User: Fold this.
Amino acid sequence: MTRGEYQCETETHVLMFPLPAQGHVNCMLQLAELLVLSDVHVTFLNTEHVHHRLLRFADVPSRLAAYPTLHFETFSDGLPSDDPRHGDNLGEHIKQVNLTALPQLREICMEDSGKPRFSCIVGDGIFGRLTYELGQELGIPVVYFRTVSACSFWAYFCAPRLLECNELPIRGEDDMDRMITSIPGMENLVRCRDLPSFFRGTHNGNLPLEPVVFETHQSLRGQALILNTFEDLEGPVLSKIRLHFPRLYALGPLHAHLTSRKAAKTMSSEEKPAASFISSLWEVDRSCMTWLDAQPPKSVIYVSFGSITTISRDMLTEIWYGLVNSKKRFLWVIRPDMVAEQDGKDLPLELVEGTKERGCMVGWAPQQDVLAHAAIGGFMTHSGWNSTLEGVVASVPMICWPYFADQQINSRYVSEVWKIGLDMKDTCDRKVVEKMVNDVMEERREEFEKSTQAMANLAKTSVREGGSSYSDFDRLVEFLKLLGTRQKQS
Ligand code: UDP
Assistant:
């Protein structure tokens, strides 16, 4: 699509702009779809690399056909096209985008007339400064969408306070179980090891904390803050955040919110049910759904570590033994780029046999469909925020094995606050894996069935008419439309 090819019917035209990674693109696309369903005109901006993958593996043409007021545009992330853009290089990737994007975005934002054609930018909060500079230069208001959990956002926000109170830095491995006391609302809950991984310093491929905290504080300069969470899940933390961000919209779980709004729209009109679109950056292998169809109810543990996690060969082996020794059926997503090094050794026979009998492995699964399948009884996850919310909505107990970023604190909340799973962070031992799989699937199954069902009900209620996320979304649309009117008048 070239600029000027379409006319904006409405005066509310939002530019959306995610960090180029699967989790961010997923929930930003969900929000985009919700907005176009509410008569907001959206231009969705991807890096060329992400867009190319969406064109290959997702439903871009059918999405465009369904929504005439949704458009895609692209810009270069500054990396060569053959750069693998592995998750481990995410820090470099973000740096590159920050260095190269502004002139390109500026051009995209200007109409042929030389006037801004957007009434608002809904930018990824992790690009806080970049988005703010763009908005300032062009006189376009900025609303930040931070795609992580409220608890991790709040921990980043409070980092300067932790430094002042001498609770940071973390002084090595021996210090990991020290309780953090000066994050309001998290007293007696979060240990050093439960803080987002960037608090651990720059070892083990971690990004430095400073830029993340800096970008988090940039959100204060926006007109509003959007989070993909809901009151009944993170109410206490949201109330702390609201003291600094009075215009806060908690709209999650966005994937369930979208399903709910689409269903309501279908019921209230003669339209046929709206399709749900794939947003994958990898080729989805649906063969696992046929395999799941042949398994008894709640008999399978689904194992997936998201789109960025990489693991060593040793970790792979420990988890594999744990799964096989648990004697439970398992469905495991192993992305082609997930195992950091290959040792070329033959697999032990017991793993080959155990997998043949009870396992299924794919490179990329239709995760939401998998989690909703009757055969699934547990979810071993890296605790990425999208995966966590998908697990919550599907009412599946989780075994959390966080890799990086917000995942360390998400897993703490899963196990200690919401009590819908177990936290396996900082260990990777076949015996622990085996025990946790058996706990979740058998020993503590009833207990987890109650807690996960209760939380899933709250999640679904929040995105139905009258629910907190539903109402927050209506308020957001009203606010975006007000910004549109103001822009037009100025
Ligand atoms: N996902 C998927 N198929 C897979 C693995 C993951 O569709 O085989 C999706 C998953 O449903 C989630 C997203 O990829 O929406 C991963 O986002 P998350 O925030 O959980 O983790 P990240 O990939 O950012 O670490």
In short: Residues 468-489 form the longest helix (22 residues).
